[in-house]
Specification:
Layout: H1 13-40, H2 55-60, E1 65-68, H3 69-72, E2 76-78, E3 86-95, E4 101-107, E5 116-121, E6 125-128, E7 131-134, H4 139-144, E8 154-155, E9 161-166
Parallel strand pairs: 2-7, 6-9
Antiparallel strand pairs: 1-9, 2-3, 3-4, 3-8, 4-5, 6-7
Length: about 170
Amino acid sequence: MTSPVRAGNGAPLWRRRESGRRLVAASALLLLAARTASAQSPTPGGMPPPAGMSMATSAAMRFPQPVRVGDLLRRDVIQPVASQNFLGTVQQIVRDPDGALAAVINLGGFLGFGSRPVSVPVDALVLLGQVVEVDAFTPAQLRQLPTYSPGSAAPLSPDAIIKVGLAKPSH
């Protein structure tokens, strides 16, 4: 009768292979669980308004704080997920002909090249420390917004005061 082939630690080789397969399977399962968890909550920091609720009503529930327009300019705009994906920078705050406030954000690009300005309602923005989060639009929805054209809205003075909601950290 032949004895089984043994590994250096004295265990049969087939057991060593089996434990390696278990480790690979457990790692794959853990990776899948992590991806699923992040996919279930795409916007944990600032949530989009519930169905039927206006952005203005939702913004009023986020403890709006008075902020000087000049303090918002050139701030990074991020997606409200744990990875905090960079979306662009705030270029100016404008008032459209209807009286609504909007932030002009240079969206996308790389190192300033290839970006384009889009107008995002101030009610869709929240402050998180030194950055601004867009919580009412996904990145895909932002990319579908029309390009902002200068002159279509009046820029606010850097000394003007507006109210912007606050976000809780997403991680």
